[in-house]
Amino acid sequence: MVDGYAAAAQYYDLLHTERSAARTQALLAAVGADVRHGILDLGAGTGSVLAALGAQTPDVPIIAVEPSVGMRTALYARLAAAPGLRARTTVLPETAERLALGEFADLAVCLDTSPAFPPPYRPDIWERVRNALVPGGVFLLDEPHLTEPIAQEPREFGRVAVGTHTVVGSVRGESAGQRQWWEYRYTVLDGEGEVVSVEETEFYTWPVMPEELRAELADAGFVVKDDIPYDGGQIIQARR
Ligand SMILES: C[S@@+](CC[C@H](N)C(=O)[O-])C[C@H]1O[C@@H](n2cnc3c(N)ncnc32)[C@H](O)[C@@H]1O
């Protein structure tokens, strides 16, 4: 399988931690007190979200679904440094399309990941998530930012110093039929601003209208509740 996140994984926490923390705090404030059984993290990435969830919820099992070996490397490194979290977190090296779990969780999250699900597979994925939730369990996923494919001018999304170097992340996009094409570029600069390395990764996502996503969730047996707002977006809240 092609690992679209191979280049991104090494820089992911450096460049994304701030946004990830804002979303996680918003969703913990909204539903954290309800967690009693288990947590499912679909597209867990480097584990920054699940670590924050794990730190502020009871000692319930966590299942992290993450198909990218690059991202899993960072995730396992995070677990290695946190024995308590390691003891309760099981990592499934597969895609959401292959999820087959019985009822265990009262919180399922899928952050910055659902646009990667091809539309024909989405209804089946929502059903698989519902099957993993106990009655009353909640599923949280981002409200889509992109409702149609569109050209996106290159923009810098993060810049962080690491020793004498600076890591710079930038992104650009193009429409590609019904899909959105993305290119993420990671540039490392030395103290004089000279380029040390440049790595790129590209992948596609599927834009969708938020109402369409909510309708799919309702069709899969969820009751869609009020969104959870955070600084920079909204999180859709669907209860089993
Ligand atoms: C942008 S990252 C988000 C990671 C994490 N949820 C966060 O918010 O920091 C998207 C993640 O989704 C994973 N992913 C992509 N396609 C997936 C699929 N079909 N099923 C499960 N995970 C997938 C990628 O490997 C990547 O780690």
From TrEMBL:
Q: Where is the Methyltransferase type domain?
A: 40-139
Protein's name according to its UniProt entry: Class I SAM-dependent methyltransferase
Keywords associated with the record: Methyltransferase, Transferase
Pfam families the UniProt entry points to: Methyltransf_12
**Biological processes, Gene Ontology terms:** methylation
GO MF annotation list: methyltransferase activity
Q: Does the keyword Transferase apply?
A: yes
Q: Which SUPFAM superfamilies match?
A: S-adenosyl-L-methionine-dependent methyltransferases
